Fold this protein.
Amino acid sequence: MIIVLKPHATQEEIDHVLEKIESFGFTPHVSRGVERTIIGVIGDERIIQEKPLEALPGVEQVLPVLKPYKLASREFNPQGSVIEVSGVRVGERKVVVIAGPCAVESRERLLQVAKEVKAAGAHLLRGGAFKPRTSPYSFQGLGAEGLRYLLEAKQETGLPIVTELMDTREADLVLEYADLIQIGARNMQNFRLLKEVGGHRKPVMLKRGMSATIKELLLAAEYIMSEGNYHVILCERGIRTFEDSTRNTLDLSAIPLIKQLSHLPVVVDPSHGTGKWDLVSPMALAAVAAGADGVMVEVHPRPEEALSDGPQALLPDLFAKMMESLRRVAEAVGRSL
Amino acid sequence: MIIVLKPHATQEEIDHVLEKIESFGFTPHVSRGVERTIIGVIGDERIIQEKPLEALPGVEQVLPVLKPYKLASREFNPQGSVIEVSGVRVGERKVVVIAGPCAVESRERLLQVAKEVKAAGAHLLRGGAFKPRTSPYSFQGLGAEGLRYLLEAKQETGLPIVTELMDTREADLVLEYADLIQIGARNMQNFRLLKEVGGHRKPVMLKRGMSATIKELLLAAEYIMSEGNYHVILCERGIRTFEDSTRNTLDLSAIPLIKQLSHLPVVVDPSHGTGKWDLVSPMALAAVAAGADGVMVEVHPRPEEALSDGPQALLPDLFAKMMESLRRVAEAVGRSL
Amino acid sequence: MIIVLKPHATQEEIDHVLEKIESFGFTPHVSRGVERTIIGVIGDERIIQEKPLEALPGVEQVLPVLKPYKLASREFNPQGSVIEVSGVRVGERKVVVIAGPCAVESRERLLQVAKEVKAAGAHLLRGGAFKPRTSPYSFQGLGAEGLRYLLEAKQETGLPIVTELMDTREADLVLEYADLIQIGARNMQNFRLLKEVGGHRKPVMLKRGMSATIKELLLAAEYIMSEGNYHVILCERGIRTFEDSTRNTLDLSAIPLIKQLSHLPVVVDPSHGTGKWDLVSPMALAAVAAGADGVMVEVHPRPEEALSDGPQALLPDLFAKMMESLRRVAEAVGRSL
Amino acid sequence: MIIVLKPHATQEEIDHVLEKIESFGFTPHVSRGVERTIIGVIGDERIIQEKPLEALPGVEQVLPVLKPYKLASREFNPQGSVIEVSGVRVGERKVVVIAGPCAVESRERLLQVAKEVKAAGAHLLRGGAFKPRTSPYSFQGLGAEGLRYLLEAKQETGLPIVTELMDTREADLVLEYADLIQIGARNMQNFRLLKEVGGHRKPVMLKRGMSATIKELLLAAEYIMSEGNYHVILCERGIRTFEDSTRNTLDLSAIPLIKQLSHLPVVVDPSHGTGKWDLVSPMALAAVAAGADGVMVEVHPRPEEALSDGPQALLPDLFAKMMESLRRVAEAVGRSL
């Protein structure tokens, strides 16, 4: 950590900063430049990053040198992690496709979609039983009933289930059914929920918050991992920007960037990332070209009747077409589907 | 609601849209312009806003006419609401000041700060017992012990307590101690938590999420109110933008805007809004000048030793000075402190 | 255009709005709903969009129905435009690659890079003679001398030249040398510069401003086209967001979106879009997978000595490798390189 | 400047970095920590900031220690600058009010507004003769004719004139009429225009770009000042964020922040900052409470007929009322109007 002092910091102020650093058990190194004096701090920066050194008189700024996460960092597992979800391995050469409706709406419809996405080659089935909705007047999901339909769909198709957990009180219930627990974007910094899933050994798909930096996403993963659950998959799903012609701005540069910074696999959700069904397929292809380990896509047989996010759902036949293109792009970048 | 059709929408597509609208129990009105055909929909828009009409073939865009919130809207209570917090009334002529440390760190320190902010004229005492922290390695709060210290500080000073609730499982505990329950920015769309506090009758201070629009903030308030708890105070605490020289960008235009759109009182948190103690006082003055019903400020006797957010805390004597200026500005805009 | 009235708009206010509309030569249609009265306006909306109807008493909001651009819209040329740059056709099946140094730094270095990118398969040579730099103390480009080196490089390699115009006073000079005139992101709304290049018939590559919406980008193109120059290529180069681990956030969803809204070709600049050389190649591949008509990439033989933007430049051999991958991805999505 | 090396940087890479630094005439200081080696660079950082050291193999990040601007920095003139605009002093105790129509539309209307704002106490008259408009089909200003009307209004009222310069080719013309030259937000990084006005001695009001950081604003001021023109006033006018219920997000924390970082005066434009006339007055009061040296407000006698930005213009009587409140708030914070 580097501490930059104000131009006219007094000797008294400097001494006070040095004392502070030493009182925390660290060694300061003073370096006097022409315009500024700087102090280097040697020691485990993650501990000292917690100290409010910026509040000390005479301090202009504090520059961290190390990343604040450890378990989620690339250095922790340089060759990259593979997360297994009931037999489906995420993070290897093979690109994984998660598909299904936004929300579980009825038993029949879910079974129908599950069969269709299975036939088109999907590896995991998504479907929300508990739905976080912006308005209290929107459909909030079928709850436990929805989970039972998901299980039935899994039994019929063999596809493991991805579904969202929203409340610590429902952890046991959701953990009973889900093969991969989704933590939604709005809950990326619901730290109690992160700790809860960190206390189990089920794989977790952590979606990036809509205003979260990559650093914050990795710190959220660190919350889960620091509780002992290392089975974490990250999901880029678009960030909030000033552009209003798409629902979010899908940040595909997050893929190669996360690959540099972290060992965790990355999947991309172009459905939420764009909010428009006709942008989903091009962005799914782009995600794979950029190195994503998987894509998650919403599929609905009648988007105009969907109870949630209809405008961004693909029809099953468009999904099947997308799968063909996805295979070609995956192969072009040395992967398979 | 207005539905704009694509330039070359076929008659079949138009008929399909009309049928859909009628099947929902609404009446469509078709209007053919030179370049576009539009369909007006008559009926309770909040119901039909749920329908994914954008997913219908031939539809270019869907324009809502009504606001999606009702109980939080100005029209629901045109003269404005006053929320009472254990005797302190928020939303009247008198501007309310909430002050205290970011986190409760020890019994002694809390009691000291409580007495100092009381002496300077604060009306409510803030202090976090449960702390949402970006890193799992940061101080997470004293929990139940912190709540007991807050109660003691209340008994000594008479200041009602504002403290944060982070987890539905802790609702009973926090409700026992808090006079005003804070829902933090990161939990503004933790819908289960919103419903939980909506089920009680304790006043709630709902902080704006760092990437939440005003519309979304009002919808989050609607979640609480639709469960029956109308005692909601809104808090502007800065939004996330590209500017990185402040922690957040404090959006003071939210104050007069919320006053137009909603009947709920608005307080401003310039400590989180700026992240820098030397910007807190000017922004608190600005907030009151812009019409805020209150301000919430972090005060710490030794910011350099704070376990959370030291760089943004005011020293007690600076807080006392700020209170004097605040009084003058409040009077300049026809209010009092 | 739809005008939504306030809930308690008086009859007098409504009549005043109707009169206004008629005074502009348009026909209003009143529709009274349960909660709001709305007025539809029939006529050429682009004219009436100029009128400040939102300022009329009793008006709550004005909802435009039509896009504000015409010449740049997809409807103007549904099959899509192909822009020819001295023999290189942009907007066809073949993906076009623009490569070269950020700035022209010396004759020798430019000639070297030009030959290397030519050998690797680039179609156009980029290089800045006039450089827009954030700091006045940064290298500002070689000016006219740089243009002469570009011409020499073109004569040696046969690659047409892409270079930036920054000042209306230099239009004649730059137009003499450039095959494709670049309007930089910072000048996307330098309307005089847009009109200036609109008055010539040289092709123009218009880069999206760092905080410009797609709508504003298309309106900037409309500025050029409305002066008579239809030879416009759009360039996505990243937008400014809160994420600070990349220089900008490259918005690849802009590609399929622009393809829907406009007939103009789209190229992508992953060098400025990411600011990091090791993200350039994955994002170039992603751009082509998403449907881009071309990519523009910075190449420098010794990035550590570059006078501008060294950290985002590819070494020539990495560029050559990228070209191979690009070819495979292009073919996977039915195109060629 | 601090250079942080990658965890596994080789000795060869480290040596290469050291050589580079020395070849630029600077002295490196190596410091080996547990997890990272860092190199401190002693010397004038503004020169070395230009060097692309991030492109060197083995380098993880480069941390600047000094601000990149000098003439605009607070240290250059610690007591703060006062800029005189034809007798009106900006930057002293007295808060300055600039008022007038967005665009000059006709001689009569301009004279009328000029007299009204003068009567209400304004100190400077604003009015655009050259207008930057997002759409080419919008009113573009009266040009030279507008400048003549402004001169006439100045002669009648005694109010000095603030008007915008958009094109280097019109500098002579605008300089002849303007007392204070406005550089608009869209041209904040039109570096040629900055240099042009830097070459004269007329005061310049530089508006913050809609996606410009404070650092970039100060670097844009540095462009003007480095050409010799030190008469620069900065203007906060709102930045672009995700919030769409206001035209921009007015960043009032920029006021105290700029006061810390720079000696230049700051005025605030709440009309563009909010885009809504009913938010203008509260935000003007807030700006003065936060320490602004002036406010600039759009006033129009018939906003519904304005040719530009009608929805954000105040009626003359509302402006007069705002002036009364402004006076009270100015006095509350130790200033006058």
Chain A touches chain D through 23 residues (CB under 8 Å). The longest strand of chain A covers residues 27-32. Chain A is about 35% helix and 20% strand.
